[in-house]
Each structure stands twice: as C-alpha cells, then as structure tokens.
Amino acid sequence: MQLTPEIVKDIIENVPKRRTPIDGYVRSAILMLFFNRHNQTYLVYIRRTKDMTLHSGQMAFPGGKIDAEDASSYETAVRETYEEIGVSEDQVVHLGEMGYFETLTSGYDAVAHLAWCDNPPKYRLNPIEVAEVVEIPVAILKQQFRPDLHFDNAQEVMYLNFRFKSEHSPNPANLWGLTARITHHFIHGLTDHLQRRSA
User: Domain 5-198 is of which CATH architecture?
Assistant: First the structure.
C-alpha cells in the first residue's frame, strides 16, 4: 500500500478531532512520520530504552512534553523527533494534526502531528532514550485494524493491539495504549478515505 501526502491530508481533514486539551493533564506532542520505500508507505515508531522512568521499553511515536519556550505543539514534536532519532525539521513536511489523545494512566494529553519525509529517513538515535527505530508498513497496520472498536468504554482499549516483527530487530513490536489508539484513529481514517474513493 502506497500513500501520498495528499491522501494523508485528506485523512486529517476528515477524522474526528478533540481540539481542547484536558485540564490538569500534561500537554505533549508526538510526530507520526510517513515515508515511501519500494512502493510501500511506512510509519516510524521508536522503542524506548528499558531504563526510562516513564513508558520504559514501550513502543511509541517520537515526541514529548511541550516546553514553555516551544512556539507551537508542532515545534515540540519536531524538536523531540530530532533529539530522539536525529530527523530534523528541514527533512519533513508538516501535513497537519489529528487533535488531542490522552493517556489512560500517566496523565499526558498529546497532540498527534503528521509529517511526510520525501526520502527514507537517516536516523541518529539518542541511546539514552531510544533503543531502536521500527518502520512498520501501513498495509500491515491496516490488516490488523479492528473496526468494531469505538472506545465507548475503557475496557475496549484492552483489545487494541498492533503487532509487527521486523527482520532487522530481534524483538517484536507490540503497539498498545496511547500509541495504538493514535494508530487506530489514523487507520480508521484511511479506511474511510478508501471507502469514499471507491464510492
């Protein structure tokens, strides 16, 4: 499956969005970074190191807490992406954002920004924060999409899990929690886009 920046923009324009942050939650921002290789679109994830105090060893998107000096949440997302995996703002094109997504346990409220990289990224990992980068084909994520999950209650989150085993990593990538919910939201939008296009 190969996407284009225009397709991703259409998805962003049509997905439901929560625009207002939750009072009392720590505001943060993440970056969903897309690129094409060999007629496949990939989405970039990171595995956090096991010695971190928060979300240790988990799969995540690049990102972090919004600092007071950040001009925007997108600036936070690209700053954190550069600090964590070495992909700078001038290598990507900002396509838009999908609103806020809250964690269910740690009190964070994250804006999900989406960006496009015209060429496969070249990474420089921060070994303190990032154990590895995992590039997952969007087609694999779509195959595992659960359209029956609408998150009407917290229990449904327990049934949400994307899995991927890269030939470049000894460890399988299991997406769950906030990362899986944001991924699910995008794939839901992609499914709707494909239905609109075929109508």
Answer: Alpha-Beta Complex (3.90)
**pLDDT value at 23 more than 70:** yes
Distance CA 52, CA 29 (A): 18
* Run of H or E including 92: strand 92-102
The C-alpha atoms of residue 158 and residue 11 are separated, in whole angstroms, by 25
Q: Is there a contact between 163 and 172 (Cβ–Cβ < 8 Å)?
A: yes
CB-count exposure of residue 55 (10 Å: 0-12, 13-18, 19+): middle
Query: Closest by alpha carbon to 81, among 18, 5, 133?
Result: 133
Q: Domain residue spans in the chain?
A: 5-198
Across 82-104, average pLDDT: 96
d(CA 159, CA 145): 11
Q: Is the pLDDT of residue 92 over 70?
A: yes
Q: How would you classify the pairing of strands 26-37 and 108-117? A: parallel
Q: What is the pTM of this model?
A: 0.92
Please write the tens of the pLDDT for every residue from 168-188.
777 888 898 899 899 999 999
